[in-house]
Amino acid sequence: MDLSMVIPVKEESENLPDLLKEIVAAMAPTGWEYEVIAIDDGSRDNTWEVLENLSKEYPFMRGYRFQFNCGKAAALALGFSKAKGEYVATLDGDLQDDPLEIPKMIKILNDGYDLVSGWKIRRLDPWHKTMPSKLFNLTVSMVCGKRLHDFNCGIKAYRKSVVRFIELYGDYHRFIPVMAKWQGFRITEMPVAHRARVHGVSKYGISRLVSGFLDLVSLMFMRSFSSKPLHFFGLIGLMFMLVGLGICGFFGYEWIQTGAMHVRPLLLAGGFSLVMGVQFISLGLLGEMVNGNKKRTYPVAETFRDE
Question: Sign of dihedral through CA atoms 115, 121, 124, 126?
Answer without folding.
Answer: positive
